[in-house]
Write a sequence for this structure.
């Protein structure tokens, strides 16, 4: 069962904030976040392993609520370079199968 | 350091043919995963290999097979190609399981006519 991402698309002005959510119907072992620009491969952003774990670098951070089987990606003071499609990838165990959502398309305008 | 490399970049095949896609992981990484990505969708997991052994398999028919070599590079083979196999095939390398970051290669764009 693939995770569900919301919203499907969001349009921002430079400097605005955004939150992208990822929900699973199954217990999660890990959540990975990626950004993919058109015609390019997905780029790794961060990985969260423990319930309640939060991570961040620069102005992008994420949280993982193990009980709710949810993760959220927070983008603050968005820049034009943040535009792209964001995917969450989830794993139920440490074994290899990673399941991706259908993505959230983020457009940042000047 | 070199990232994940894949070859070829683009490929056009005819229905019924066979195709082999290749992937070289980041130096030191022992795991390779293969994904299929159709336009507008997220990557769909096909296989994961770690230390030359299959560790995970997605919901793909037996026409899809893969292997990992002693140098940790990998091949994805698809037999009896169908039009629906047209997609971007991505390879990702990591140190091991899903507690580690995955780094994707540029992909192979396969078109089946």
């Amino acid at each position: 069962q693939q995770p569900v991402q919301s919203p499907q698309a969001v349009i921002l002005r430079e400097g605005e904030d955004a939150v992208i959510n990822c929900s699973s119907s199954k217990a999660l072992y890990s959540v990975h976040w990626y950004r993919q620009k058109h015609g390019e491969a997905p780029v790794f952003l961060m990985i969260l392993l423990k319930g309640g774990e939060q991570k961040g670098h620069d102005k992008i951070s994420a949280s993982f609520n193990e009980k709710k089987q949810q993760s959220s990606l927070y983008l603050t003071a968005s820049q034009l370079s943040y535009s792209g499609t964001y995917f969450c990838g989830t794993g139920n165990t440490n074994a290899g199968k990673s399941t991706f959502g259908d993505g959230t398309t983020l457009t940042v305008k000047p | 350091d070199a990232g994940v490399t894949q070859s070829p970049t683009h490929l056009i095949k005819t229905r019924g043919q066979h195709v082999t896609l290749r992937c070289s992981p980041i130096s030191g990484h022992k795991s390779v995963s293969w994904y299929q990505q159709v336009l507008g969708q997220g990557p769909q997991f096909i296989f994961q290999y770690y230390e030359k052994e299959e560790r995970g398999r997605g919901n793909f028919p037996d026409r899809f097979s893969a292997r990992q070599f002693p140098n940790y590079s990998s091949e994805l083979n698809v037999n009896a190609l169908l039009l629906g196999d047209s997609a971007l095939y991505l390879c990702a390398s990591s140190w091991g399981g899903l507690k580690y970051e995955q780094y994707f290669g540029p992909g192979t764009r396969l078109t089946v006519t």
In short: The first strand of chain B starts at residue 5 and ends at 7. The mean pLDDT of chain B is 94. The radius of gyration of chain B is 13 Å. DSSP finds no helices and eleven strands in chain B.
